[in-house]
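pls design
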């Protein structure tokens, strides 16, 4: 309390410059100057009282000058009410500011003959100025075209028209339901588009574009999901930074596309989501120069396009692509612990990592800690993975872990084709990390044929589990190595079911099948299998050693230029 001017100044990089909560302010004038230089909130006044000459906001100055373009400001209903709202809306604030509407409609043309709403809240000298209307509604019978506007915890209903929101800063839509009898176009020039706990239902195309921020769509939980639906159009999300989808359903008549193309650090996260196109394709695309850390512990790993939980895709064609350049220190495409991917339709997965680092997890495609399950139906699955310094395909297990951290494919009258190439490391690394680690590998079930090709400067295919006992189909593994084996199954190996193995190496064994110590009893069942191995300069085309290895009703064909044919 003061009889003079009260000034509140604060600066932050990423949190809140000036934050007032649970306070009572009384002064002749109030000056609030909050700055969020990188991101965050310039100023926030909530659960507080303005007394005396401050209550009507006439003697209150609010500024977020110096804040990043995507920063926002917050005023809750303890500060803004029906009596002073118009005074607030006349103020010139540098960034978008939340205004509580207390349940009152910001626009309703139901009783008007002139339908639709066009409003520009931006200012020529303050391009990031605007208002985020909280707890309100919009009812329009025609086109709605807004600039410098956002909505939180609101309902927007448009008949006989389209919705366009074009902001220089962020475009918040948190907790908001959009129902539009036309198309939806939301653009954030700087800052993010946030649709947490929100829904969009439109007749036409839905387009969300963030030039310098992220797009986030999420439901309350796995049971109460966000819904993005276009009954006659498609859905297109574009971000230059990140797209994060969690607990959400996408349904469209035409194409569904999610695109992240970042010159700096980009991520595309998909968790517990579904994507269904009734007559078009579903496309996920990530191209990033760097990769964000997803955890910060001592074994911190990185992912560009990250799948977690259970995700489903259904379309004529499904295309999933993750590309990363020389500064990407991690997986281009990562399946988090125990992820499940359901694919219905012909699917192409492409994961490429051009990192020039030294870590093994600078891989194209990876599975972490627990086995990834991929279910395929109504079309074949094609996986193409490549890497420069890491393995093209890599599974990561913790020291002492016995559970499989590899990949399980369940085919429903579908075929699987995998092609993995690494310039300086292994094509496919699904082997254990030590004697106490049980198995990482490949499990195939269902109906369909399988073809796996791995090639690398070191080894071609390294794995410690290959299970085909529940597959009705043919399995062909082809490994091409340089200084290591073409196919190496040498640690706690579990083979079950007849397969065809073809391995070649320049300087090592073509195919190495050997017993290794570990916590799981070694068992290699090669009954009904065909094994072919060749080596130019190694000791053998095929080398089999150890115990508990059974082989009947199959063939062994080994050739070696300077060593032994079958070791």
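designed seq:
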């Amino acid at each position: 309390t003061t009889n003079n001017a009260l000034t509140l100044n604060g600066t932050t990089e990423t949190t809140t410059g000036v934050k007032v909560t649970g306070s009572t302010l009384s002064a002749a004038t109030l000056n609030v100057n909050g700055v969020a230089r990188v991101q965050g909130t310039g100023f926030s006044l909530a659960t507080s009282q303005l007394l005396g000459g401050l209550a009507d906001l006439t003697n209150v100055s609010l500024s977020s000058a110096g804040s990043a373009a995507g920063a926002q400001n917050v005023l809750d209903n303890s500060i803004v009410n029906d009596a002073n709202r118009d005074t607030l809306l006349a103020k010139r604030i540098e960034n978008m500011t939340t205004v509580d509407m207390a349940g009152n409609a910001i626009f309703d043309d139901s009783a008007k003959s002139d339908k639709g709403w066009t409003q520009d809240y931006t200012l020529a000298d303050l391009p990031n100025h605007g208002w985020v209307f909280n707890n309100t509604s919009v009812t329009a019978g025609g086109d709605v075209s807004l600039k410098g506007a956002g909505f939180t915890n609101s309902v927007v209903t448009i008949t006989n028209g389209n919705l366009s929101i074009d902001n220089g800063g962020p475009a918040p839509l948190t907790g908001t339901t959009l129902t539009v009898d036309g198309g939806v176009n939301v653009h954030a020039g700087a800052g993010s588009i946030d649709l947490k706990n929100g829904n969009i239902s439109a007749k036409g195309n839905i387009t969300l574009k963030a030039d310098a921020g992220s797009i986030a769509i999420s439901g309350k939980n796995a049971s109460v999901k966000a819904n993005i639906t276009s009954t006659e159009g498609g859905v297109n999300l574009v971000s230059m930074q990140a797209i994060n989808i969690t607990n959400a359903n996408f349904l469209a008549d035409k194409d569904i596309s999610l695109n992240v193309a970042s010159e700096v650090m980009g991520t595309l996260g998909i968790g517990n989501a579904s994507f269904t196109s009734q007559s078009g394709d579903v496309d996920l695309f990530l191209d990033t120069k760097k990769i964000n850390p997803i955890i910060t512990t001592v074994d911190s790993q990185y992912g560009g396009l990250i799948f977690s939980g259970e995700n489903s895709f259904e379309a004529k064609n499904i295309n999933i692509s993750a590309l990363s350049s020389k500064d990407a220190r991690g997986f281009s495409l990562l399946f988090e612990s125990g992820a499940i991917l359901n694919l219905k339709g012909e699917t192409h997965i492409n994961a490429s990592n051009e990192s020039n680092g030294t870590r093994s997890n600078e891989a194209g495609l990876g599975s972490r800690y627990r086995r990834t399950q991929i279910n395929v139906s109504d079309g074949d699955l094609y996986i193409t993975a490549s890497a420069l310094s890491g393995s093209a395909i890599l599974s990561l297990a913790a020291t002492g872990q016995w559970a499989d951290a590899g990949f399980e494919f369940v085919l429903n009258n579908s075929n699987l084709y995998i092609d993995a190439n690494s310039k300086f490391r292994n094509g496919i690394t699904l082997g254990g990390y030590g004697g106490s680690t049980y198995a990482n590998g490949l499990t195939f079930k269902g109906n369909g044929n399988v073809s796996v090709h791995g090639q690398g400067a070191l080894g071609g295919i390294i794995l410690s589990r290959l299970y085909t006992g529940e597959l009705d189909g043919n399995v062909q593994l082809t490994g091409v190595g340089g200084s290591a084996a073409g196919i190496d199954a040498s640690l706690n190996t579990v083979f079950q079911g007849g397969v065809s193995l073809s391995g070649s190496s320049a300087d090592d064994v073509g195919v190495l099948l050997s017993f290794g110590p570990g916590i799981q009893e070694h068992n290699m069942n090669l009954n009904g299998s065909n094994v072919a191995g060749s080596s130019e300069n190694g000791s053998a085309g095929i080398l089999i050693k150890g115990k508990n290895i059974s082989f009947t009703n199959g063939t062994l064909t080994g050739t070696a230029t300077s060593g032994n044919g079958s070791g």
